[in-house]
Structure formats: C-alpha cells, structure tokens
Amino acid sequence: xxxEHSLPTPVRVRFAPSPTGTLHVGSARTAxxxxxxxxxxxxxxxxxxxxxxxxxxxxxxxxxxLDDLAWLGLEWDEGPDKGGDLGSYRxxxxxxxxxxxxxxxxxxxxNKAYHCFCSQERLEELKQECLSRNEMPQYDRRCGDIPRQxxxxxxxxxxxxxxxxxxxxxxxxxxxxxxxxxxxxxGVIGDFIIVRSDGGPSYNFAVVVDDIDMEITHVIRGEDxxxxxxxxxxxxxxxxxxxxxxxxxxxxxxxxxxxxxxxHGATSVGEFRRLGYLPAAIINYLALLSWAPPSGREQMxxxxxxxxxxxxxxxxxxxxxxxxxxxxxxxLHIRDLDGEAFHKAITPxxxxxxxxxxxxxxxxxxxxxxxxxxxxxxxxxxxxxxxDQKPLAEAEEAAELINAASMRVLELALARAAALNGAAExxxxxxxxxxxxxxxxxxxxxxxCRQEEIAPKQMYRTFRIALTGRASGPELPFLLAGLARxxxxxxLEAARDFAAARLGSKGQAG
Length: 510
Hints:
Structural class: mainly alpha
Number of helices: 22
Largest sheet: 3 strands, antiparallel
Mean pLDDT: 89
Helix content: 40-55%
Strand order of the largest sheet: 3-4-7
C-alpha cells in the first residue's frame, strides 16, 4: 500500500461533480474527504465541473452544487468561480479549446488507440452474445486492425466513428491508499472508448487529461470508481505520465443495506438544509461514516477534523446512513451555538413567532428551545407554546385537568404566579432574572403539592397543559419567563374555569 506520509508537495486534490442533479450526501462526503485531506496536508482543493454531458447538465444544478458546498464550509482554492493557473475548470470549456483532441491524436499517432466504426446495434448484439456465454461483455477488436489510411478515408466520407484505447495483454495493478493492492486482468477491461462518435471525450479519458493538466496528486472518490481507476492508469501509462495516488472510500448505504436513495428519505444536501440541519453537523456526521479520529470522539468541529484527518484511517467497510445519529449530532451542534449564531440559524424556521414576539420574549423563547431541538425545523412547533396557545377545548391532553388534584394545582399556581415580580414585557438583559424567578416559583409550588400528596409529575403536566394546551414542550422555567405575567394569569384562570365547569357537569350528571 502507498504511504500517505511520502506525499509530494504541494498536495493537489479535486472534487469533480457533474451538474446533472443536486449535491447528494454521498458526493458531499467525497468532497469533504478531499477537503480535509488537502487542508491537513496544507495542499490545494480544486473544484472542477464535469459537464460534458450536455443533454443533462444544467447551470442551475451547477449553482446549486456550489451553493451547497459553500454552505457546508468546504471552501475551494481553485474552481469555475475563482479561476486558477491550471484552468479552465469546466470540462465543456476545456473540450471547446481542443485540449482532449490533442491528447487523442497523440495516442492515435502512437498506435495506442484506433477508430471504431461499429454501430450501436452491433455493439449491443456483441454484448448479448457475451452474456449468453456467461462472459463479461467487451469489444472484440473488429476495427482494431483497420489501416489508418482506410479509417481516415471512411471518416472523410462522413462515416461516424469513436476512438478506442488499445489495451495490451497483462494486468493492471491499482495500489490504493484505502483498499490496498487490487489486480485487474487486461481481458476484464477490454478496449474502451476514449472519444465518442460525436467528438466528445469519454469520462475515463477526460478525467485523466484534466488531472494531468491540473497536476492532481491524489484522487479520492467512491469505490464504485475502482475499475475506472484501472482504465485510467492505462491511459496515464500510454501518455508516459505519473499517475496520482488513489483512495477509494466505501459508498453510503441505507439502513436496509441498499445504496442510499430517495426511498430512504432525504438524500441531498439541499434537503437536509431545508429540514433544519446545521452544516457543522452534516460534515461531522459524513466524516464519521467511514472515518474516526485517534481519540475516538464523535462531536467535532471542522478545525478538529482537519487536524486529525488521515486517509489511512478511512475504513473499507460499507457506511450505513443512520438518521438517528445525525439527529443526535445535530442537536449537540445546535446546543453549542452562541446566542447570536443560534438566533441567526433559527430565524428562517420561526414561523409565526417571528412576527408575534417582542425582543425580550424571543430571547427567552430561544433559550428555552435551544436545549431541546433536534433540527431547526422543530423550532416553529416549540415556539408556538409561547405565542400560539392551543385552545384547551381542542386539546386531547385537556382531559388530564378534569380532576380534583389538577384543580388544586391550578389554584396553588395562580397564587404563586400572582406573587411573581415581572412586567408585561421583557428585555433580553433581564431574561436570566426572569428564568431564575420562575425556577423559584416552580420549586415552591412543588413543595406545596407534595404536602398535599400531589405527585410532581402531575403538577408539571397540569401546569404545562394549562399554559400551552400541550403535554410537552419547552422547559417550564423558560416558558414562564417568556410569557407576560398577565398572560400566565389569564391562561391559568382559563384552565381552572375549564376544569371546574367540566367537574361541575360530572357532579350534576352523577
């Protein structure tokens, strides 16, 4: 296995997405590993757009990919929007400049490639014949011995032709930084197309030319490219170029063991972004899917991952996408945000609360929900407890108030609430004092209820349902501190009257 400790300087890696869709989390992990490796080695991270598939490539997808990478904090040093000394950084622009055709002519001149005039129908028949014999489909070199002069005459007459790479006998060895040594017999590879009949370069050819011209030293990508690496090594060898070091990480699988796809839920970075996940949590989780730092810790900042990332610590085993673990990490990162950062992150997810709250109320409400959010998208529902009370008549939990013990809790709570010192409006600076006053009030209420043999659980649930119409939500001290004193009194009185009326109805019915 190649040692990553004998690295050339400077290290240059690239992430090369195709703008045919949005950024999948699997592709984002590839970008992340390239980024971490480059930053750890004080190297260069290149972003290259592979857009030679003109029929499927879209500018809006390119913009979306760049936006998602920037949101994740994976800053690139060279790319289509930044330029660089070794561009262009879009394959379509490089193809238009004739960069690929020049390399193809060189291979043709050295008899390392040849024109193939076979139709798609014949190639499909050949494929089916191979499959019927339980053989791996590969080209039979029917056009491999056509004299160059004859081929040029047919081209001049308008006959379409691709260019195939001539694979010599023997074997190809891929020394991989993650997988180790993998051997591919030449017969398994077969003569592959490097230039399509429409004149466009194939993936395996364009990638080699681009990586040579951009002086890429390490190629880090998914293990589904391992066979491509064997083909690409042959092209490097034919062009007398030193190949980069390869590292092929495992793919991301769904919980059922299949490749992660839409059937498993959200799969794109944009979807997770809209669902309220933090970029710090996304890259933290993606890094851990096949890698772990020497310390074994799980919650990490980007700076910590850069410091500890080493490619030889990336595991070969498949990575299973565990949404529960992502949720856990996202909650940790949410709780670690300072007040200003949390306010900025949560603002797009506030819903109606953003327009209903005063500055002071919002300060308390944000403190309340920050400790319990799994995603930022949960904020609207939790903030509703402060600003959008669910009517008791419509709340399923309201039935829990219709008993003597709950009635007594409400009476005691009203007496305690009346003793609280607080104004109708709050300010952010006083939030801490309000919260502490609420804690003391609840502690006193708990003591009184115990004396009357009312369990703390019933006390807390009664209080919460009375204030919000819900049995769960923000911690009660925060909730009390975030509500105006008059609002607390009105909601407790409404709950008491609601329970009393229904208890009275029960008594009459009896």
